[in-house]
Queue: 2 jobs
Job 1
Amino acid sequence: MKKTRVFYCVLIVLTTLAYAQSSMPDEMISLVRVAEKTDSTLYWDGMRGAGVLEKNGHHVSFSAFSEYILFDYHIMKKCEAVKKTNGTFYANNSFLSIVKNFFDSVPPETHYRIGAILIDAGHGGKDPGAVSNHIINGKKVTIHEKDLALTVAKKLHAMLLSIYPDKKIILTRESDIFLSLSERTEQANTVEIADNEAILFVSIHANSAFNKTAKGFEVWYLSPGYRRQVVSLPKADKELEPILNSMMEEEFTTESILIAKYINDGLEKQIGSMMPSRGIKEEEWFVCKHANMPSVLVEMGFISNAEEAALLIDDGYLRKISLGIYNGLTAFVTHFETSRGFTGIP
């Protein structure tokens, strides 16, 4: 039997999942032991009390707060929830039997992967976004957010295409045209991907403020408290829709936070010595609310700040920003495709 791998998605004490025979309740089994007996890999998030067992490309999702198990992210079955006793989470033998029967009954599946990345260059056409005027190197310069966003988006698009020729790398706009916010998210929501594929959405912007000293880059994700409909089931399965929708919402939120963290880290390595990081933040931006997938919004710096404006009109500097976002996205893709997505900090 292979050695069981356990990935911890947040900082938790190892002993909370250790197999402690002496304190185990009757007819209960630790989650680590379930993974060992099914020869699967356990991904566990102690903060959320939720986990995924993965084997041969198939996945069993479960939670300490739900009586449903989710198979391969679309089939549900009712089962007694895992329980916490003496600091350790346990399942019963019925849970073990259901998981084992599932893994034994399905053939190896194509690896779950990112099938598409949609890059949204903010504003465009009649909508210039933020506009700022500065004297740079003795010349008056007018900066439009829409131009910076498109330049970075196109550089990022080229970088991603070079490393992922087998994925759909899509720009919402390739020139100075106007697109409504709903047109942008509609593009994302209608991209065709395979059953074993997922899609990511990243929107690129530049910041502006009345306070001319405001500076730095930041990455935003959708507020976890915002509720949206990301799943639609046939009429016969409508009673399960709220449960599945809630699970998918949580998954998208976790993934979006992780994408934001990776991109913020990527930008910090590329431009952190010249522009400070303002960190990752949450907000209910339209494009994040209406893109039914993991999504983030990048603010690459303040054009209202004279010092940052001088940097943002430099093509080499914009390439560094593009590279920072690229490194963040590729780090997330690698993590996602390795773990099939029980995303978190391993």
Job 2
Amino acid sequence: MVERPWAAGSATGVGSLPGEDIAEALRLVLGELPELPYLPELPARGPGGDIVGRGAAHLVDLHVERHPDGWRLARRPGVDERRARDLLARDLDAVEEHAAGYAGPLKVQVAGPWTLAACLELPRGVAVLADTGAVRDLGASLAEGLARHVADLSRRLPGARLLVQLDEPSLPAVLAGRVPTASGFARLPPVDDAVAVDTLGAVVTRLRDSGAAPLVHCCAADPPVALARRAGAVAVSVDAAQLTDRDDEAIGEAVDAGVGLFLGLAPALAPGTPPTVEDVLAPARRLWARLGFAPDRMPETVVVTPACGLAGASQGWARSVTALTRRAARALAESPEGVPR
């Protein structure tokens, strides 16, 4: 059985929020998600606040720089890397201040090794993914950087039980051979599942050794649930709307092995008609019925989240949907079979 550091009936966010004020974002998260808060990401702050730049800020002995099409590895640190590292440092200072004395699970997010490999370029202009040795070095650098990140957060918030979410939106494309070459006219070869498990598993293992609980998030279609389980993740995080019947077997095996399921159930963008709590929970209940597990297992296994990050949402909807996920998680805990009590 995989240890679950969160309580039954928990809700959390995927990671990103709108705006540029980290103090305001932390007040929202800590106020609305007391069972499982997270350190928000604010992509609106620009380069260094985005998923790739923020992930690269964790790298050890590797340097990055911006270019017109994104981020690439560099031979020496520059202004773009310093900005990314400075944003991360300021966020850590802010969470230390606003969450002082907090005791309980706390989630942080970072781009996983395969998404970084697909999105970062080598100095010569090809994706890191195209070079097996470069992928190996990138994974080792990220693992070391995340171990240091966990140690830093543990010193700042000694009562927190850290979960590290590895964001892998590009992993399905990596596995299917859909990542384009630099020219855009061809695709890089697919990565073998065993290789993908080894690289992701090395980061997961380092996180476990550092005392953190690792989970893998992918809000794309064909989420790599089985791969994440084999890599040792404590939970997988997926968008329920992207799931099909083809995913049931992998999800069922993961749940049966004790792996948690962070389910994206609430809309990331404001719909025309605000959903009710039962609207939000309906896909989870249908999935659980297909899997055939006892309803009373669902609250301890499922963590309710928005469908994806909230960077594109309005401030008002970000606050509303965060509160909605918490109400839905509580309703699930109180009535796992869907019968109000």
